[in-house]
Design goal:
By secondary structure, this protein is of the alpha/beta class. It has 11 helices and 13 strands. Keywords: ATP-binding, Nucleotide-binding, Transport.
């Protein structure tokens, strides 16, 4: 399987935050969700991938190439939507298309205007007249108009209403129908990850905690509930994000398969209950562990 993006031991130190030797790979033809709480390092990672910031150490390869020798080629093959949309506010959407198109070797003006029509964005409006949702749609149309092989989005659905979020997620799924293309998008909205991601990468406090196919994560991680009044010390040590309440103790584990025989008598007596979990609950448990 060919990797469209490879990051090895990426490190960036700020005064109050450090991106700690981040490593991840994204295969061609898939969507990866980069998920974590605010301030976890998602945007820093994406800015480094886009060569928008200098980093202290590590390697980034995109399409098997590095920025040092191939920056123009790489950026012609990437579509990027940042967390904030920066435009010339007093210029029209049509003007923005003409301005941006100059910077790409392959630009499909018809595709851009088809996307505007689909998104219901007027080409004659000034940028300052567009709502937040419309600005994201404009950014996405500009990012897709040069037929990128890798689409990178930083919190694209944050602050948008559910209808616009759904429209954007549908577009991302359409992008990878061409199996030569991939999508990397960061978010703290785990519901979006559940809907469309093939791979999930958790980043907490500047560190990759887990990166794997979504189905493998959801298949491996389980929620374990121990009925109140019972203690199982050998189980507690294997749980993360432990919560205690009136009903007992609960936590998550990725070691359920190896514990089945040990848990069998407890399950039979209804002392322990095992349930599937979610991308969101796993994130919450990771954050609790870091605290």
């Amino acid at each position: 399987m060919e990797n469209i993006l490879e990051i090895s031991n990426l490190r960036k130190e700020y005064e109050e935050f450090t991106l700690k030797d981040v490593s991840l790979t994204l295969p061609r033809g898939y969507i990866m969700g980069l998920v974590g709480p605010n301030g976890a390092g998602k945007s820093t990672t994406i800015k480094a991938i886009m060569n928008l910031i200098n980093y202290d150490s590590g390697k980034i390869k995109i399409f098997g190439r590095d920025y040092e020798n191939h920056e123009e080629e790489i950026k012609n093959r990437i579509g990027y939507v940042g967390e904030e949309q920066f435009f010339y506010e007093d210029m029209s959407v049509k003007w923005m298309e003409k301005f941006i198109s100059q910077h790409y070797i392959q630009w499909d003006r018809d595709e851009f205007y088809n996307l505007l029509e689909r998104f219901n964005v007027s080409s004659t409006k000034k940028v300052q007249e567009l709502s937040k949702g419309m600005r994201v749609k404009l950014s996405l149309a500009l990012a897709l108009a040069h037929n990128p092989e890798l689409l990178i989005l930083d919190e694209p659905t944050s602050g948008l209403d559910p209808v616009i979020r759904s429209e954007i997620l549908k577009i991302l799924l359409e992008v990878i129908q061409d199996e030569n293309k991939s999508v990397l998008f960061s978010t703290h909205i785990t519901e979006d990850i559940e809907k469309i991601a093939d791979y999930v990468t958790y980043i907490i406090d500047g560190e990759i905690i887990l990166s794997a196919p979504k189905d493998d994560i959801l298949g491996k991680w389980k929620s374990i509930h121990i009925k109140t009044g019972y203690e199982i010390p050998e189980l507690n040590s294997k749980l993360i994000g432990i919560e205690k309440n009136f009903f007992g103790i609960s936590g998550l584990t990725d070691q359920y398969e190896s514990m089945k025989s040990m848990l069998k008598p407890y399950l039979e007596k209804d002392i322990v209950r095992v349930e599937n979990t979610s991308i969101d609950q796993i994130l919450i448990s990771f954050v609790k562990e870091e605290k």
